[in-house]
Each structure stands twice: as C-alpha cells, then as structure tokens.
Design brief:
The structure is a single chain. The protein is of the alpha+beta class. Helices cover about 35% and strands about 15% of the residues. Helix 1 crosses helix 6, helix 4 crosses helix 9 and helix 7 crosses helix 8. The N terminus is likely disordered.
Length: about 425
C-alpha cells in the first residue's frame, strides 16, 4: 500500500474510539432529567460512596468476568490487557497476555499505559473548576483567550468542550499526519497543532452539530494556562492528581518515556507497519496530543479517578457536576465526558494503546480496560487491519471490545456506536 493511502486509512484511527460517544448535544443548562435521560438519578450518582477497593467480588461473578475477558481477548489484536471492576459489592482485577511480546513479558496489574483521550476528561474538569472559581464562564468566547481562531468571536468555551465548535481536528491535516508518521519521535508544540487545525476550519457554524476535534482541547489547554498564569503540568497536579492521590498518573510533557513498569504498545499506524508486523509505538512522542490526550496512568488510579469523575467528589461542586451529568437523551457527549444508556466515561486511543473508563450510573460500577494496542479488528471499512482479521465480528478497538464483553457479564451491557 502506498504511504499516502496508508496514512489516509490510519488517520481514521485517531478518532475511531473518540467518536464512540457521538450523539445529542449537551444542553445549555442543567434541568430535571427526562424519563429517557442517560443519567436518571443525578443526585443519587453524585452522592455515591466510593466502592470498596479491597473486598473481592463473589467467586461466581469473578468467574463470569474472567470468561468474558478471555473470550473477548481472543477476538482482539492486542498483545495484552488489564481489566478492573469496582462495584459496591467489591472489586475484581485481571491481566491477560503479554506486556512485551518480543521479550515474552507477561502483562501485570499495575503496569502503566498511555490513556489517550481520557486526558480530555481531566482538561474538561479543570475548565469546570475554573468556572466554579469565577475565573471564566462557559459562555465566554474563545477569542477572549486565544487569538486567530476561525469564528473565535462566536465559539464558546462550552462548544469547545462538547465538540460543537466547528473547529477541525488537526488530525484531519495530511500535512500534520505526514510529518508525525514519518517522524513520530518529534515534539509538536500546541501552536503548531492549532495552526494545523485552523487550516481546515471552520467545518460548520458554531453549535450547528457535533464533530470530535482534538483541536478543541488544545484550545482549552491554552485557556487554562491563560487564566491561571501557570502551566497545565502544574494545574493537573494541583487541581486533580494530588487531591485524588493519583500518584501513578503522569503528565509526560515533551518526554516519550513511561514510568516503570509499563506495557509496550503496538500499532498499525505509521509509515512502516504491516498487517503481520505492527510497529512498536511505545516511545513515540505524545506531545502531539497535549491536553487532548498525552497522559499516562495505571489501573488503580483510573478506578479511583473514574468514581471522582462521575460523582464530582473531590473535584467539582454539586451544581457543576449536575450540569456535567445532564444529557438530553439516552446517549450524548457533554463537557469532556460521554454517556450511553447510563454508562458515563470516555475512551482514549493513541498509537499503541487503547483505554476505556466507564461508570455504570445505575449500579455504581466502574470498569477500566487498558490494552497495549490500538489495532482494530472486525468488519472495519477504514482502519488498517491485522493479518487473519475476522470480518464476521463488529469493528471495535481492543479495549472497547473487552469492555463491551465485561459489561455484559455484569448484567448491563454497553452498546458502542459503530466504528470503522
């Protein structure tokens, strides 16, 4: 396959899992949830106590979860995976496969992986914290903080956060993707990412429709630095990581390194991968994702963060969290967070890794899946596929496929939107 064709196919992977939660737009203000609202008892969710982190789940349920993991893992193209479930009744964790297939190192609970667009939930949370501090408004236009944004005098902070701004994702720019795939070790600065996104903008009038854009969250990162006068590195640490005790969640900045222990990540993205020979993307520089997707974490931190993200506990006051959990129907994307049938959370994908973090708001159950591959399998029309791919199954990323199976074993199956 010519390099240009390969890049076009692989470009879709940047957004494949990210568009998982595309749906109705976030309402302009919180209101009493409708009968078909995605989160039906917002006050109850906000009041949920943290689930026990040490009590094991009953053996029968643990066996069902293990069986679901093994069956779904066999349908993926990831060397390994880590899965964690926390419910009000207890916890179950498991690792499967290899962390480093070249060396035969087994995957282990506690290993670090890149978490991609889960970073957006951290960025969105900080924006809401600044709203709570009275330092900005969701109705402010982005032109107040960043110059040169197409339609910037009409695009609000809310429209950036809920993906209705009309600003194109910089991953749509072949100039950017050509540079990145040819030299994935290079460092992209935020202004360069913005320029790439602006070159394809606007896609539509502000607020007209949903379109998942990484550029939106680079802009929100710039807003955070403008308003606070500090770096996003310091703000993540002071506002989220330290208050929640997330000692294994890392903002790498311009560094390609991961803290030990970590899993090696495989991908079919880039100029050199082949269906039977994926590239090792472990140390591809993540700076291209900045506040849209460059964070690193591990299972325990993600399970702890998931509860805080959905309840707002330790992060946001009741009014702001109520607004964040107010979706207009049974599915939708809100302020850096998505919801399908009561499952609230986000998926994150970077070359080499896919992560899912969702909380079942009907039961208080948090589920995290970390996969050391972003390679799709199934009946995919746009994504590069591995050798021996089975087209008889739905097109899904590895973490999403495992999460879907585990959620079904829990009794409330997650139904992802179609992927390609």
């Amino acid at each position: 396959m010519p390099a240009s064709t390969a890049r076009r196919g692989r470009l879709c992977l940047f957004a494949a899992a990210m568009t998982l939660l595309a749906g109705p737009l976030h309402p302009a203000a919180a209101a009493e949830p409708a009968a078909d609202a995605c989160v039906r008892d917002i006050a109850g969710v906000i009041a949920m106590p943290p689930p026990p982190a040490t009590t094991p789940l009953p053996a029968e349920l643990a066996a069902r979860l293990q069986a679901a993991l093994e069956a779904s893992f066999s349908e993926t193209a990831t060397p390994g995976a880590i899965v964690g479930v926390r419910t009000p009744a207890g916890q179950w964790q498991a690792a499967i496969g290899k962390a480093d297939p070249a060396k035969g190192t087994p995957m282990a609970i506690g290993m670090h992986t890149r978490i991609g667009s889960l970073t957006k939930t951290f960025t969105g949370t900080m924006i809401l914290q600044l709203v709570g501090d009275g330092k900005l408004s969701l109705d402010d236009t982005i032109s107040k903080y960043v110059a040169g944004v197409p339609n910037g005098d009409r695009i609000t902070i809310l429209q950036l956060a809920d993906m209705t701004s009309g600003v194109a994702s910089y991953t749509m720019s072949t100039e950017f993707t050509d540079q990145y795939f040819a030299h994935p070790e290079q460092v992209f600065k935020p202004d360069a990412l913005l320029a790439a996104g602006f070159s394809k903008s606007p896609l539509f009038e502000p607020g007209a429709r949903f379109d998942y854009s990484n550029t939106n969250f680079i802009l929100l990162g710039k807003v955070i630095e403008k308003v606070t006068g500090g770096t996003v590195t310091d703000q993540f640490k002071a506002r989220i990581l330290e208050p929640l005790g997330l000692t294994n969640t890392i903002w790498p900045g311009d560094s390609p390194e991961l803290p030990a222990p970590y899993a090696e990540g495989l991908t079919l993205q880039g100029d050199f991968a082949k269906p039977d020979a994926p590239s090792n993307a472990t140390h591809w520089n993540p700076a291209w994702a900045w506040t849209a997707g460059e964070m690193i974490s591990n299972l325990d931190d993600l399970l702890t963060y998931g509860h805080a993200l959905v309840t707002g506990q330790g992060l946001l006051d009741t009014a702001l969290q109520t607004r964040r959990l107010t979706f207009p129907g049974p599915a939708g994307y809100g302020i850096a967070i998505g919801c399908i049938d009561g499952w609230v959370g986000h998926t994150g994908t970077l070359p080499g890794y896919e992560t899912t973090l969702y909380v079942d708001t009907t039961s208080g159950t948090t589920v995290v899946v970390q996969a050391n591959s972003d390679i799709m399998t199934g009946d995919c029309s746009a994504s590069p596929l591995p050798a021996g791919n089975d087209r008889s199954i739905a097109c899904l990323g590895p973490a999403t496929r495992i999460f879907t199976a585990v959620s079904a074993a829990l009794g409330h199956g997650f139904k992802p939107n179609p992927q390609h």
